């Protein structure tokens, strides 16, 4: 049982911890027993956080030199790095991912994002614009753009990768001079509560970053509606994204929506098959399949179809389900009972639609929210190929031509990411241009690196995070014209 004695389970507002009137309880996904009792922020708490963030924006944070902002982000990165194991422990205990993966991949991603945007803090420039004389006359003008911060940003994050995804919002928002209110997911708030302590330790002015744990329909909705918030940066389900878009219309908030996915992994006949099968299995099963970019539709050229089926079957059967803190475990439990039941309902649905069960297909007989890694063989019009399942479930679909592969890949409401396995360079570039996806990996997953813009097309969302796109999205371009 993870020790929570040093975690303050209150709201972090204006640099102080405050109790809330309501609380809610979270579960340990490995055992199915209670884990923590957390504060549930109400609308008054949201008002208080907006007031604190606005005061910091207009005061101590807003007036801090850009290079000092960068130094604070770097300091936070150092503190996170030094605290990696504890942060990883909290996150794995909360949402079930194997601890080793949290240490090796998730926390380093947050550190890298903080450092990347720390470097941007004093490099945000507008542009000088060659302009005509005033109103077309002889009087010259001097025109330029400036990139100012937006104001208070709300970062609403999901449970599948809380710290990593939070970093994609927090670091660029702060680097651009905004202040932030964080709303963690109900099922995985602990690592973010620990981060709040590190933010205080780093020395950010009070109110620069606030954390409101709580229920999505109360806390999240109040943030989306609040007129004092300039931008909502949301990662989560497509359904919640729609609600946020509607509620944000109150004051025309900027919105960044990173939503669901149903990524295709296309394996061509000329692919390096060992790499393609190993990579596809990783794309399918990493993080229990609770990944927006999970490669859940494996499109296999008919000439390699049987080998792909055999390879994925072996990969599924080779997964070791178990306690996230057991070093042998490669796949932990799903986040909660509702998610497990939802995934199991898709396993039944796949079988009833006539998909062949190549591997897995049910829940193991053990406590906790475990589901067997499952591979179906079937068609793209099946529900298991069309809908986001958000668990360790994939379907293999055969194709004969490049055009057919593209048509199948694009025949889905989502357009977040895709993977292409081929040794033909021109085919790789051509397919990348034709596929409906915000990020395309060739012969490997599209890496989630701070320098590379990330986001989706179609029902996978609006906007891009990370890279220079991330900077642009947290600034308001203003045009200034001086009549000389
Ligand atoms: P979710 O939409 O249920 O919840 C996400 C967050 O929104 C949580 O903090 C929740 O409390 C909050 N929320 C819920 N209802 C709200 C409302 N009405 N108003 C405002 N906030 C509200 O998503 P989840 O189950 O936590 O995460 C899984 C989903 O996230 C999947 O669909 C997955 O594809 C998606 N996701 C996308 C990306 C990406 O980069 N595109 C990354 C990770 C996860």
From TrEMBL:
SUPFAM superfamilies: ALDH-like (SSF53720). The keyword NAD does not apply. The active site is at residue 258. InterPro entries: Ald_DH/histidinol_DH (IPR016161), Ald_DH_C (IPR016163), Ald_DH_CS_CYS (IPR016160), Ald_DH_CS_GLU (IPR029510), Ald_DH_N (IPR016162), Aldehyde_DH_dom (IPR015590). Signal peptide: none annotated. The keyword Oxidoreductase applies. Residues 18-480 form the Aldehyde dehydrogenase domain. Keywords: Oxidoreductase. PANTHER family: ALDEHYDE DEHYDROGENASE-RELATED. Belongs to the aldehyde dehydrogenase family. This is Betaine-aldehyde dehydrogenase. The lineage of its organism: Bacteria, Bacillati, Actinomycetota, Actinomycetes, Mycobacteriales. The gene is betB.
